[in-house]
Amino acid sequence: MYTALIYDGSFDGFLTSIFVSFDLKLEKVNIVKSQFFQDSFFEEKETIITDKEKADRVWLGLKKKIKPIELSRMYYAFLSENATVENALFMAIKYVFKSKDNVASNFSNPYILEISKLSKNVSREKHRMEAFVRFKLTKDNIYFANIEPDFNVLPLITKHFKNRYADQKWMIYDLKRNYGIFYNLEKLETIQLSFNNSFDPTKTNASYFTDSELEFQQLWKDYFKSTNIKSRKNMKLHIQHVPKRYWKYLSEKSPI
Amino acid sequence: MSFERVQEKLNILADAAKYDVSCSSSGSNRTNKNKGLGDASASGICHTYTEDGRCVSLLKILLTNHCIFDCAYCVTRKSNDIKRAAFKVQEVVDLTINFYRRNYIEGLFLSSGIFKNADYTMERLVAVAKKLRLEENFNGYIHLKSIPGASDELMREAGLYADRLSVNIEIPTEKGLKLLAPDKNRADFLKPMKKVKNEIIQYKSEKKIIKSTPKYAPAGQSTQMIVGASGENDMEIMYTSNYFYKNFNLKRVYYSGYVPISYDNRLPQIGTPVPMLRENRLYQTDWLLRFYGFNIEEILNNDHKSLDLDIDPKLGWALRNLHEFPIDVNKAEKRMLARIPGLGMKSVYKIINARRYGKLNWEHLKAIGVALNRAKYFIICASNEYERRDLTAQKIKGLILQNSKSKYTKTLSNQLNLFG
Ligand code: SF4
User: Fold this and answer.
1) A206-215 — which CB contacts under 8 Å span 24+ positions?
2) Per-residue confidence (pLDDT) for residue B418, from 0 to 100
């Protein structure tokens, strides 16, 4: 019989689930985020309470067996939020712990392969987001950006922005997952905002943003147009590089 | 900053700068200092792409499009009847900082028409970079154009603030330069290039002894040549390019298909298509020289002055040198693997890695990503099936073209039609 391990959706919660399944010697588990859980007659169910210590023990155990790049592939894959990723990770982690040698790059194992594929997708979007974030300056002097990435890449991109924008307050907010990261000139904080109804993330509302904000967006749009060479036009290539689903928040692509 | 004035200037001066194809922002090692703004060590990001599919990484503008010269191929030339504008130093600084803070760009690429004289112009370019570095504590990427004829002192200073410097040779041959830019001479181009090259060498040797030696143009020098404006052939272009790589330690040479902008009868007329396919073949050749271990004489020589448009230059070389093939992928050394058509350097390394664990067959090669439709005529592997027929170069080429759909097929047929 399968046991459903219901966790809070966090990475530590997931690792705690792994710990518990090993601890209870569960062979057949179905690790699932609480928001997606559906009761079933055919499953036992176990609610996991995230426990940092247990999570760390699993992570450190992995760290001893596999290379940093293989470890980060697992984390990246987890952030894909793919429906079967917990299962793939569970199987892969079991496989890693059971084997004497390091098998984390043995791509003939279907779970290892799946993790590698998912992590590639996440990594691609991480790079895209580092490029496509567009900050707008708010009246209280915070550079604010909203994003809606396919995968949960926000935790992966903050270091890049912290290194680059060390002297300005900034916030990147994931509207899809409803959380953001705020840099207050000292350190990063995770935050949740409640937006009032008049807030339209695709617009630049003058009551929130500085007067010059729209001007700079206009200048950027102008620049984008002027730097194009019409006689070399190649929209196919353009869309391949800047997929349409990201246009919404790109100031150069949206009407002001 | 007056918005309308800056807006108008930006439109004029970005439009005039767009023919410079270089937009690279990588190769620097400048990191964020003292909690300042920016980090050029992680540059190289394309923040967006123009509708012509080119990477937008830098704010690429001219400081001014006033110019005392009259180079026929250039929109900024003196005799051209266009709107002129000039940025103030502070305006460029403000634009750069504000674009950078919004994550639009990796930095600034500042070029200029020549107003008054070379030094007067260069001084202003340097002033922008200096202000960004010293007053704004800006650590993003800065690419400055070296103005032909600029003094050694200014070039020395430029390199202290810029990550990259470049002089565009534009016209590959002396005779072309005489024809199209009679008031310019080659020595003026070479002067700042030489100075920068020597400074970089000196910086590198001092750096070994004194760690705190101030950085000098950490991303090196580059140049650009226009293709298809002055009737030069591919051999002339690539030999010039090779000369500059060798003698000035250039990081990159860019090739820019000429975009007709003038009715001057020394030049291709407006409406002539941009030679994008030829440009692409030149880049491929450039790669073969820099990363694949080819010598320029192998690809272009007196018997073979132009690159084939219908096939890539590596395939072209292979077809002229069939006696070197077939190559056994399970035995051949790296140098020869790199010469097989359809194999990129990535595949070469993968093959070398994978063959340690066992002999490779067609399936393996396919999984590695080798373009077998081209490669199969040139290799043998752990399989009894291979091309045994004694095919002529002409025949192989025909077979390959039949079975491949180049992304340029359309452009190619258009361009071939146009040229008969
Ligand atoms: S000197 Fe430079 S800007 Fe002036 S016309 Fe010649 S190429 Fe153009």
Assistant:
1) A207/A139, A208/A138, A208/A139, A209/A136, A209/A137, A209/A138, A209/A139, A210/A137, A210/A138, A210/A139, A212/A137, A212/B3, A212/B98, A213/A136, A213/A137, A214/A256, A215/B3
2) 40
Does residue B419 have a pLDDT over 60?
no
pLDDT in tens, A111-161: 998 999 999 999 999 999 999 999 999 999 999 999 999 999 999 999 999
For residue A167, list chain B residues with Cβ-Cβ distance below 8 A. Answer: 35-37, 137
Task: Domain count for chain B, please give it.
Answer: 2
Task: Give the residue-averaged pLDDT of A95-103.
Answer: 90
Among B102, B269, B279, pick the best mutation site for testing chain A contact (most A Cβ within 10 A). B102
Q: Which of B6, B31, B56 sits opposite A219 (nearest CB)?
A: B6
d(CA B119, CA B103): 33
Same domain, A11 and A93: yes
| pLDDT over 80 at A41, yes or no | no
Both B223 and B331 in one domain: the answer is no
The boundaries of the domain holding residue A120 are 2-125
Q: Give residue B179's pLDDT.
A: 84
Q: Do A229 and B19 touch (CB under 8 A)?
A: yes
Percent of chain B with pLDDT over 90: 53
CB contact under 8 A, B46 and A132: no
Give the residue, out of B74, B184, B258, with the most ligand 1 atoms within 8 A of its beta carbon, to mutate for a pocket test.
B74
Contact B138, B37 (CB under 8 A): yes
Question: Which structural domain range is residue B388 located in?
Answer: 313-419
Judge whether A236 lies within some domain.
yes
**Could you tell which of B20, B69, B112 is best to mutate to test the pocket of ligand 1, judged by most ligand atoms within 8 Å of the CB?**
B69
Q: Are A127 and B259 a contacting pair at CB < 8 A?
A: no
Nearest to B39 among A164, A215, A234 (CB): A164
Ligand 1 atom closest to B77 (CA): 5
Residue matched to tokens 């592939």 = A73
* Three-class HEC string of B387-401: CCCCCCHHHHHHHHH
Q: Letter for the amino acid at B61?
A: I
User: Does A254 map to a domain?
Assistant: no
Let me know whether A143 and A107 are in one domain.
no
Q: A108 CA to chain B: closest CA distance, Å?
A: 13
Q: What is the pLDDT of residues B154-202, one digit of tens each?
A: 999 999 999 999 988 888 888 888 888 888 888 888 888 899 999 999 9
Question: What is the pLDDT averaged over residues A224-237?
Answer: 85
**Across the interface, do B51 and A228 touch by the CB < 8 Å criterion?**
yes
How many domains does chain A fold into?
A: 2
Average pLDDT over chain A, rounded to an integer:
91
Q: What are phi and psi of B355, to 5 degrees?
A: -75, -10
Give the binding-site residues of ligand 1, using a 6 Å CB cut-off.
B 67, 69, 71, 74, 76-77, 113-114
C-alpha–C-alpha distance, residues B104 and B144, integer Å: 19
Q: Nearest CB to B99: which of A164, A220, A230?
A: A220
| pLDDT higher than threshold 90 for residue A46 | no
Query: Is 80 exceeded by the pLDDT of residue B1?
Result: no
- Asked which of A62, A90, A125 is the last residue of a domain, the reply is A125
SS3 A181: strand
Name every chain A residue with its beta carbon within 8 A of the beta carbon of B14: 222-223, 226-227
What is the pTM assigned to this prediction?
0.88
